[in-house]
Amino acid sequence: MARKTTNISPPNNRDSGEQDQFLTILSREEALQRFEAALFPRAITREQRGLADALGSALADDVVAPLDVPPFDRSNVDGFAVRSVDLSSATEGTPVRLALNDEAIACGTAPTKPVLSGTATTIATGGPLPRGADAIVMVEHTQPADGFAIDVRRTVSPGQFVSYAGSDIARGETLLRAGTVIGSREVGMLAACGIAEVSVAGRPRVAVISTGDELVQPGSPLRPAAIYDTNGAIVAAAIDENGGDAVFLGAVPDDDAQLEAAMRRALLESDMLVLSGGTSKGAGDLSHRIIGRLGSPGITAHGVALKPGKPLCLAVCDGKPVVILPGFPTSAMFTFHDMIVPVLRRMAGMPPRTDAKVSAKVPIRIASELGRTEFVMVSLVEGRDGLIAYPTGKGSGAITSFAQADGFLRIETLADHMPADTEAEVTLFTRHVRAPDLVIIGSHCTGLDLVTTPLARAGLIVRSIAVGSLGGLAAARRGECDLAPIHLFDDRTETYNTPFLVEGLELLPGWRRMQGIVFCRGDRRFEGVSAQEAVRAALADPSCIMVNRNQGAGTRILIDRLLGGARPEGYWNQPRSHNAVAAAVAQRRADWGMTIAPVARASDLGFIPLAEEYYDFALVTARKQRPAVQAFLDALVSDEIRTALDHAGFRRA
Ligand SMILES: Nc1nc2c(c(=O)[nH]1)N[C@H]1C(S)=C(S)[C@@H](COP(=O)(O)OP(=O)(O)OC[C@H]3O[C@@H](n4cnc5c(N)ncnc54)[C@H](O)[C@@H]3O)O[C@H]1N2
Ligand code: MOO
């Protein structure tokens, strides 16, 4: 949030030396209990809806069956309605002859003649059983006989091929419970009972407002220092998924008057208001202060011992819930699902959501903050002996931590970590997880997305988890993935990747990525010179700022060699990815850095090639024969993918 920086370090309240908006941290359970106590009990609203319009809504009341389904005893087959005792002596050798009654009962035809002893009546599947009959003989188990009769050569048991009145739905039975969400199956049951309209709980109208000067709506161009508003879209979608009708009111800047006006209007027109951003401690964090002016009792919890989600603010203004979700997207989504969905579902007349859980082993140690219940988003893969849960964590500020996760695990308040190899309970976001067909764990490259395109087209699920080359190798050694993409430079042998393989792994050659110096086009210090000359020019100019790479990156070794011990301005800025280097140069935070050619090209930067980096795959030999691995191997050498890689600037090894 832009304004935050203007007042971020000095305490806001200068007299007391204390910050005026210090959060009082409550436990998750207490925060939810206070919020719910201020909201419930409350009546749900009711609406009469035709079946077609009721889809997705929750029933407001139990529905009791007004009649039997089927409404009469009926035949399940095409054949003859008979009295079973008439056929008690029938055998292959001594058939029983039955005279046919002079009517045929089709579907929708009410029978008029009884089946008397020694007679049968022709009946179609679905036809009502005539008086006197108690069973049906299938047509293929009879022979026509002289004089409008049939011969039957087998006995029948009473009730054979008969569906009795009320056997499907009995009049007076509770057909559907209040709270049931109406889907196609429920519609079917209601229609079978002749019910055309139902009373459903009104979907609460929920206003959604994003806050922050930095937010731009998707579809509009991004200005410098701005980001796209992700929370608005996610929160609105999650509201609709959980029984509400979201009304997105856009992003409001960090301006007290504008925000208050927007919040007042939203509350007037809706049953609930969900904001995101500006609930923490910055000077731009206004919304929670405005809540106090909007109605009573106001804030019931501000600050929850949750991670992610600490700054969550829960309030009730004159009976309407008002929520401020943390600005970080993963925090916003997680707290919404954990703390707001239960309340929204209750207001929408829906039962609590039941979460499916699985047990999975966590292969690595996960650090956790003492004093906060920490929820860690995880991605599940099939290991040697069961499921493995990989943290997808890129932190609360990332969107993929949540979006690419299958579920989450919980680290208790009093733990400061979860040890490696813990068997943890994972709460799933969806009721079923389909284990991926191909698991790739290691360093990510946009070229990899090209290779997996044909697999996705063929319906294979590819799970790619970016943990860096070394993390990938460790996962491969533990048999948790099929392939580990790596680009590791061995200083001693001056070769890539091969020296890092251990038993059970084999090298699958990938492609080469040209590394070189990036700079803004037109920069005379770099245009048209060699890498060595470029670095000399940069070192000679004290105003020239570089962007480095992290220790351990292959690229860093190249940079250090080029610098020969020099430590120019910017040396300590050490981002962890090729993209971050390009962004620093493109945004003029640095004048030069080293990255790979496809990334430089995508940012339209000048590029001086220096050395190639090998991006290969450590293939787990024991998993080589799996169909998805074979499909990957095929894709890698196919003309289509070779051309695509070439085109993107990756050179096949
Ligand atoms: N000094 C402290 N700083 C922070 C604390 C703290 O305790 N002391 N808490 C941190 C935690 S935990 C979280 S979570 C964040 C949340 O802060 P806010 O709710 O006030 O959110 P903002 O500052 O407005 O934004 C944080 C971050 O999220 C981005 N953002 C905001 N809205 C959206 C949106 N609609 N779509 C996408 N991204 C959004 C915003 O640009 C910021 O990058 O505060 C920590 N700070
Ligand atoms: O609570 Mo914040 O959500 O940790 O990132």
From TrEMBL:
Catalytic activity annotation: adenylyl-molybdopterin + molybdate = Mo-molybdopterin + AMP + H(+)
A single GO cellular-component term on record: cytoplasm
Region annotation (Disordered) ranges: 1-20
UniProt xrefs under InterPro entries: MoaB/Mog-like_dom_sf, MoaB/Mog_dom, MoCF_biosynth_CS, MoeA-like, MoeA_C_domain_IV, MoeA_C_domain_IV_sf, MoeA_linker/N, MoeA_linker/N_sf
Biological process terms in GO annotation: Mo-molybdopterin cofactor biosynthetic process
Pathway of action: Cofactor biosynthesis; molybdopterin biosynthesis
Pfam families per UniProt: MoCF_biosynth (PF00994), MoeA_C (PF03454), MoeA_N (PF03453), PBP_like (PF12727)
Keyword Magnesium in record: yes
Cofactors, names only: Mg(2+)
Keyword set, alphabetical order: Magnesium, Metal-binding, Molybdenum, Molybdenum cofactor biosynthesis, Transferase
GO molecular function: metal ion binding; molybdopterin molybdotransferase activity
MoaB/Mog domain span: 207-346
SMART domains referenced in this protein's UniProt entry, alphabetically: MoCF_biosynth
Record EC number: 2.10.1.1
Chain's role: Catalyzes the insertion of molybdate into adenylated molybdopterin with the concomitant release of AMP.
Similarity section: Belongs to the MoeA family.
The protein's name in its UniProt record: Molybdopterin molybdenumtransferase
Species annotation: Nitrobacter hamburgensis (strain DSM 10229 / NCIMB 13809 / X14)
